[in-house]
Task: structure prediction
Amino acid sequence: MAKMVNVGFGNVISADRIIAIMTPDAAQTKRMVAHAKQEHTFIDATHGRRTRAVIVMDNGAIIVSGLMPVTIGDRVTRNAVNMIKELNEKGDKFDEEGLVDGNIGGKRHG
Result:
């Protein structure tokens, strides 16, 4: 099941599909947002608030949020840590690099 992350004001996105979380200040980031608006791949999740984070998704969508990038990043990280804890509780042994006893992503351990 895809892990979802709250990007503010009741909006959630798939954490697995995030490529980057950036501040909106850089000129290149502003150009990316303008291009996404032209290409209709822009999603505004600010609810009229100031844009504080620009999220790049793996499908090319650009999402703007009113939350700080570090806040969103912490939520994504917390989701990943919780997933590892849940799997460890079920009996699978995971660490930050993947499965310890078994095979995930072609990586063999144990």
